[in-house]
Amino acid sequence: MKSPVVLLADDEVGFVETLSKRLRKRDLSVVTAHSGQEALENLGTNSSIDVVVLDIKMPGMDGIVTLNAIKRLHPLVEVILLTGHATVESAIEGMKLGAFDYLRKPVDFELLLSKINAVQEKTVRTDRLVSLGRLAATVAHEINNPLSVVLTYIKLIVKLIERDRFTPERLAEVRQYLTYMEQETSRCGEIAKNLLSFARQSKSEIVPESIVDIIHRTLLLVSYDFKHRNVQLLKELADELPLILCDANQIQQALLNLLQNAAEAMSEGGTITVEAQRSSDAGFVEVVITDTGCGIPAARQNDVFEAFFTTKEKGKGVGLGLAVVKSIITRHQGFIEVESPVTKKKSNPGTRFRIRLPIARQGGTSVAAAEAERA
Ligand SMILES: Nc1ncnc2c1ncn2[C@@H]1O[C@H](COP(=O)(O)OP(=O)(O)OP(=O)(O)O)[C@@H](O)[C@H]1O
Ligand SMILES: [Mg+2]
Predict the structure, then answer these.
(1) Which residue in 13, 98, 161, 304 is a FRET match for 222, CA 20 to 30 A apart?
(2) Which pTM does this prediction carry?
(3) 5-107 homologous superfamily
């Protein structure tokens, strides 16, 4: 997992320099700002920032005003406040406004590090919960369908027994029913297993994984929903792709969000194409999800990754899906791009999301990470 990106905002230049050097030595990426205004500007242009370490006492826009603006404009970014003795009350006010935690100056460096790590763990948990809620509804459908098939066959068999029609000829038929029931029951088991592994509250596990396996597991979770919505699924998955270094649960979650959006963009049904291939960008594999839906106007293509941006009616969308996808992909040192229109059709111009993820190298690190180190 990529280490968190920290924005350090404090008006004391020397303090910012020393602290950012120490944080970088511990493998954190650090961006600096010397005022609240500058901190907000940085957040506006750099969406990979996970946590802001913010001094409460700054001239001009103070820490509390800045915190308020951050929580309004970037609700997924966490803030750790830095306070002097005189500002403990402000720190408490800050906690009420949604700060993650506060620390007294002079800063205990190890304590700050542990709080930054705690932020990272909370973000991962929140991402998973958001998707889990959305997934629960889909899975309920997924399991409901095979279960009703099983129930129908059980009723049939019971009727045969009750009416004493269990003749030898019928036996072959019943055997066939039992085969269907077995298939449908294992399908339920498979879905439940997937959901459990997805929901597991374990720490993130970064291991080499096959992207094609992850895609198959994800598609299993949406296939019923797609059929129900009249969505046709096309798969173009290259053989023998190199493994990627990732937390498979999180990548699955990102793909699910994209697939769900694609299906939701096609109210009358349509086609979703899922491709997996080597990227033309060396050291990466890519997953491309293309739909034949309503498309995203050019002016809105940057906004869609913002948290709480939604065009769906109340109760239908929260606007967190793509923000979660972006944070997962960025944490894996990958990239995501959106393209729309993808066809010339006015009524369904379609949308394409392309995700690039670094290929795993032997020894646990990735080619992209190594290239970034060399650069
Ligand atoms: N494939 C797509 N085609 C067209 N519009 C899309 C597509 N994917 C995303 N969008 C647009 O981007 C917006 C944000 O998507 P996002 O997944 O972040 O939130 P949402 O789907 O509205 O809500 P939810 O939190 O339930 O996912 C959507 O409301 C929609 O306008
Ligand atoms: Mg969505």
Answers:
(1) 304
(2) 0.57
(3) Response regulator (3.40.50.2300)
